[in-house]
Amino acid sequence: MPGKLKVKIVAGRHLPVMDRASDLTDAFVEVKFGNTTFKTDVYLKSLNPQWNSEWFKFEVDDEDLQDEPLQITVLDHDTYSANDAIGKVYIDIDPLLYSEAATVISGWFPIYDTIHGIRGEINVVVKVDLFNDLNRFRQSSCGVKFFCTTSIPKCYRAVIIHGFVEELVVNEDPEYQWIDRIRTPRASNEARQRLISLMSGELQRKIGLKVLEMRGNAVVGYLQCFDLEGESGLVVRAIGTACTLDKLSSPAAFLPACNSPSKDMKEIPFNEDPNPNTHSSGPSTPLKNQTYSFSPSKSYSRQSSSSDTDLSLTPKTGMGSGSAGKEGGPFKALLRQQTQSALEQRGGSPHRFCRRREFPFFTLTAFPPGFLVHVGGVVSARSVKLLDRIHNPDEPETRDAWWAEIRQEIKSHAKALGCHAVVGYSESTSICEEVCILSASGTAAVLNPRFLQDGTVESCLEQRLEENLPAGCGFCHIPYDELNMPFPAHLTYCYNCRKQKVPDVLFTTIDLPIDATVIGKGCLIQARLCRLKKKAQAEANATAISNLLPFMEYEVHTQLMNKLKLKGMNALFGLRIQITVGENMLMGLASATGVYLAALPLPGGIQIAGKTPNDGSYEQHVSHMQKKINDTIAKNKELYEINPPEISEEIIGSPIPEPRQRSRLLRSQSESSDEVTELDLSHGKKDAFVLEIDDTDAMEDVHSLLTDVPPPSGFYSCNTEIMPGINNWTSEIQMFTSVRVIRLSSLNLTNQALNKNFNDLCENLLKSLYFKLRSMIPCCLCHVNFTVSLPEDELIQVTVTAVAITFDKNQALQTTKTQVEKSLQRASTDNEELLQFPLELCSDSLPSHPFPPAKEHLESASSNSGIPAAQRAVTVEKASPMNEGNFRNRSAPPCANSTVGVVKMTPLSFIPGAKITKYLGIINMFFIRETTSLREEGGVSGFLHAFVAEVFAMVRAHVAALGGNAVVSYIMKQCVFMENPNKNQAQCLINVSGDAVVFVHESELEVVSSQPPTANCQSSCPGGDVTT
Amino acid sequence: MTNELDIFVGNTTLIDEDVYRLWLDGYSVNDAVALRVRSGILEQTGATAAVLQSDTMDHYRTFHMLERLLHAPPKLLHQLIFQIPPSRQALLIERYYAFDEAFVREVLGKKLSKGTKKDLDDISTKTGITLKSCRRQFDNFKRVFKVVEEMRGSLVDNIQQHFLLSDRLARDYAAIVFFANNRFETGKKKLQYLSFGDFAFCAELMIQNWTLGAVDSQVDDMDVDLDKEFLQDLKELKVLVADKDLLDLHKSLVCTALRGKLGVFSEMEANFKNLSRGLVNVAAKLTHNKDVRDLFVDLVEKFVEPCRSDHWPLNDVRLFLNQYSASVHSLDGFRHQALWDRYMGTLRGCLLRLYHD
């Protein structure tokens, strides 16, 4: 009996009236765990019963503790007939199973009924006593921590990042079982909720076991998804990154590190790449060009694999070591030592931890400085499958095989880019009837080999790396061999160091690295696309979809590229391409955050060309369009404050000759680049992007380019964690979910009309958001996450979740537009502060730590004088939290009993103006809501509005009960809405997850702090979190 | 292309004060959108009408969901569904329970019953307030009335505790409940010049001095019902006008004291007996429920109107009433001094408030 679960039912309030005669309720509670049930007494005639029950004790295996949810049912006692259920509360007790998280769950939980929604609240106290388990072959994985956050959680230090973990479990969907025909919708919904809860528990436990096997103690970037495959079953799958984390809470360990990733630096003996010469001899993997390699495995399951980013369109870059030069240096060395000692403590050689993993994938999107060396570009793979019934749920081999296939593909794409790892990795599905598109994407990257293994290889590699460090820009250098490039690309010498080659454009799925040098601000860029498809059955359908996919990917990329250029930017971060399949159409939606990376060349303009040059009026039209485009680019540059420094041609050197004609894949590209220079002087010497507007399609494209309106003044938006160029967040945040469904007029749908409808839908939705949040100006919508689904033939559903964060406009202007002298001054003072920091550290934990790296850093910083102000602003920004760290270190530990009344929710991993002091566990909740009185509940909008509000409420209540005051990395993974207005019915399924945390406002911290450094306080407070 | 479904849900519930007002005022979504357009919001924000429509719908839905909670404001504070900062919660409640002067004057003193509810159509037409808004205001009155009607303790405190209203609004509701319970007539034509504030002022004085609660704070209905015993006793005051000697003495005392101080002295002297008779008879009649209801009509008829027709300045009225009440203490033959003070103290305050154009 490794665990004892104790539950106490305290009271209820706001119960619904169950007895019409008395207008009261005779309520009692059933507490169920596994197969054991306890009941409270009936509390007669009250809507606010006080049960004050004894402690109900369940003695259970820890395996069950992980899998099973605690199920609390509130009922109305009826002497003569069956007791009526009022509603239920499911409590996931997982957070109680590891020591650092919550110790007790106690609070008011909304009582939820799948038909009526929330019906009052119940006060419950839950505790777990765990006994030590010595069984080595145990099936449970208690103690493994889970984080949704896709970076190393604040207040932890990664000792080792082990790598990819994945698992999936399948079952029959209760909704489709024969019994569903005879049971009530409520019973069916509850069976489903319970099953999914069980399956997630099981999945989490299994993943935990894998982590323990790898000798890790945590999963970061945990992403769990449901595939509702209908008749063929229910799949719950999850991926994550196994890590060994150390808590930075003891006073000796330096607490402030929590706040800035630059400080929770760690050594990462990262699992070995199967092809070691990739990094030992420098990036030099030769490669056959394989942009669209179709591998029809079976007649019905054709796989469309694209080493995405249509490589030709979007060359990639590496980023990484540059940052290390600034401040990573001292830390790296420092932490390596720490790691070593950690490893020694464990009594094993580090090598043992460097296990060869099948897939060198990382679900993380933000990394400790120095971890990422080069970024190759986006890799993605898709595959169309036909679903069939899962015959044996215990052996979900088919599904496993499908994913393995896709991952293999991704891996080979990465290799083709000269990369041995994939970061920012994610997987998704889109299901329509029996067809399923599986997608995976990530960013091919070269990770710091120094983290991979130690020994002789390290020292020589280190030297090589060291060379890059002072340059501060090793950032965008290509990981592949320039003479043998995997795809045609346009390379130049890096605009920062002028030593290494960089591509002209970079696409990635990760967050903007904190040390990236960005000029101006970023913005949300979306590509939207619809394609009609004939209705078909089974294999024919799968084939049709497979055939359409490459064209969609291609067009999505063309659109992204055009829009990026129109913004005057040269890199995309956080790229997420979603392809959704419906009965008669496919939808593609790509979102990313565009930025101008200082290391990459100026983006060329967009050039319009017609094919009938003799027609005068046509010429005029073309030149008119051209002018409009040029104006837009100029306007955007101003809007996003993109004013890169002028660099003369000679310094840059001549462009490397293109190894291949780019035009082959670029429908709209011109053959020669001569006319470009001629045409558009303002956008540069570089080749312009040429659009031929001969066919109507292209015309549409041009128009849609120009119809995208920028957000109103005072608003910025991005889909990454932080907005480049804004670094003074104030503490007001507003997380929201917005859902829209449009009905298409079914007559004569064309691709163009469809595209326009879809485009309008997204644009209008954004406009509405800007309008609704206008009181928060100046503010930025961060982590804007669009999801598209096609619930029915003529319906398009778009769900958006994002957070609006206010910032201080004056300060923003200051930091981005400081004069050179001023920022120089600031940089130098900050440098001094920096110097103190390692010193302090040394005395704290590593007395023998050598000083020189810090000096080196100073040199590199002072040699920066030629770099643009924006870059220095970044330096300042990064430097400041450290000072903050210094004084925070002295502050007393924050009290845990801070107000729990308000629970903040955010899709970001941090809370502006606050410091996360504790992670309480993962929140992973699944709800079903159904109604048979749709009109009475205010129609579909009323129904869904109430449901989403209820879901938020239940998330908040669970967090509050854990003792937390916020959910970070919150995500609404699924929002499946089905309606049948004729029957007055609707049903909705929502799945959300996030990390429950305790945070303390920075202002509160400062009060406690004994001597805040007055000089730096101002700049550090808001800046501190931005870097996180 | 039509928006089949369109929602926005914030973790912190967004409350737009302007839209809330439009909703409270009972405008339909379309009317509200039109009004917002007219306010120039589109130009200010660069939004489109469609955006405004969607925004308004969203807010209306939220308010609709909140309305159930607003019916019992403490629930709004404890519910978990909408995360609303306390200051916003207070604003929601306060505005929801706020009422229109024009409306309250129509129903003040009326029985808050179904019958009155049926008249809301007419009130709506008459006042120009939408029927929806009239219903809300009426239902608010009725709800507050029902909850505090039979409750022990101070009326204002009870209202504040159960509806979380501001002190000011709670006092107003106390007046509304008091008037509804005693059914004071306020709709007569000659009372039209009086504002709700005038009545509320009087109500407060009466609650303080004339109800059961004024003598004993531990009884049910203490602030809502008038002290029946007190009303019975008021008959004793009749002697002041019935006894001719007493009346003459009273008059001479008042006249002596006010000679030279009053601009309208001669008018006062000529009218003294009429005025005194009026005031004392009002007191004496209060034993009958019907006469209680006509209290304000009587006061205006018997005192306010005569003085006004003689153009008494307000200050003269004050001097007169002060002297009129005080002089009774010098009437040796009169034994009901305390009763007189309890009656006249309140009445004096009321009359001064009622005395205006």
Automatic annotation (TrEMBL), chain B:
User: What GO terms are given for molecular function?
Assistant: fibroblast growth factor binding
Q: Which InterPro entries match?
A: FIBP
Q: Which GO terms describe its cellular component?
A: nucleus
State the superkingdom.
Answer: Eukaryota
One family from Pfam that matches here is FIBP
- Signal sequence, renumbered to the chain: none
Which GO BP terms sit in this record? platelet aggregation
Q: Which PANTHER family match?
A: ACIDIC FIBROBLAST GROWTH FACTOR INTRACELLULAR BINDING PROTEIN (PTHR13223), ACIDIC FIBROBLAST GROWTH FACTOR INTRACELLULAR-BINDING PROTEIN (PTHR13223:SF2)
- What is the protein name for this chain? FGF1 intracellular binding protein
Q: What is the lineage of its organism?
A: Eukaryota, Metazoa, Chordata, Craniata, Vertebrata
